[in-house]
Amino acid sequence: MTLGNQIKQCRTARGFSQPELAEMAGIEQSYLSKLENDKSAPSNDVFRSLLSALSMSSSEFLRGIDTQKYRQQLNQIADIEALLSNRDNLKIRSLRRFLYAACALLILGITFFYTGFSKQVFSENQYQYQSLGVVQSGEPLDIYSSWSRTLDATVENSHSIREQKRVEIAKRRDDHYLLTTDNRSQRFNIDVDGGKRMYSLDKEVSVPRAINAWLQLLGVLFFAAGIVGFGLERRLYKLQ
Question: From start to end of 115-222, where are the E strands?
Fold first, then answer.
């Protein structure tokens, strides 16, 4: 709809005749007729007078007009030009925020996926340590593996003493395993009732953690949302 068509439609919607609206706006009827037939464009003052007579705001008046198609005609009126320019600026800022949001989603997607894939934050490596038993006070920490070296092979009945010691160590043996995400070197000691326990690294195992899978899934979803956001931003830009 053109500017003139909109003036005519607003006039008839309010039940005004051309002479009535012309008188209310303080212009000639012949001039109003030219405006409604797009044979002339109103000055900014005349446009304001028409809006006042029609009891309308500039925004209400523009609702029935294709502002993109008739932009050149509308820009001849200062109030409309200012209003449309302000709308354009708001749309540009809105599109920029949309674009920034899409960029943020892409960055989040890459970050989340890499964090889950690399397993650097939530490590899946766990270390299993083994303790053969409690080491009593005064005994070497590796008594369960080196007890034979504590015996004097030159003494009488050394074989019998050796067998007794072997049986004693076997009875005392109480294997205990400790699984931890911290690499505590090859050996470490813990004080317990009756002495100490020496833990030695037995093996390193990988235990999947659900959080890493969730991070990768979230990363894919955020990245996909960012790509879709870029596509929508380009489409919205073309529609402006």
Answer: 125-131, 134-135, 176-180, 187-192, 195-206
CA distance 57 to 52: 8
- CA dist., res. 108 & res. 114, Å (int): 10
Q: What is the pLDDT of residues 184-240, one digit of tens each?
A: 889 999 999 999 999 999 999 888 889 999 999 999 999 999 999 888 877 765 555
Q: What tokens does 109 get?
A: 């997607």
- CA 63 – CA 75 distance, rounded (Å): 16
- What pLDDT shows up at residue 198? 95
Helix (H) or strand (E) run with residue 73 in it: helix 71-74
Give the C-alpha separation, 63 to 54, whole Å.
Answer: 14
- pLDDT tens for each residue of 37-92: 999 999 999 999 999 999 999 999 998 898 888 999 899 999 999 999 998 898 88
126 three-state secondary structure: strand
What burial class does residue 29 get, using C-beta atoms within 10 Å of its C-beta: 0-12 exposed, 13-18 middle, 19+ buried? middle
DSSP SS3 for 201: strand
Q: Which H/E stretch holds residue 210? A: helix 210-239
Whose CA is closest to 70, among 43, 41, 90? 41
From 183, 52, 188, select the one nearest 128 (Cα to Cα): 183
> For residue 84, how many C-alpha atoms fall within 13 Å in the half-sphere facing its CB?
21
Q: Which residue bears the tokens 């008839």?
A: 12
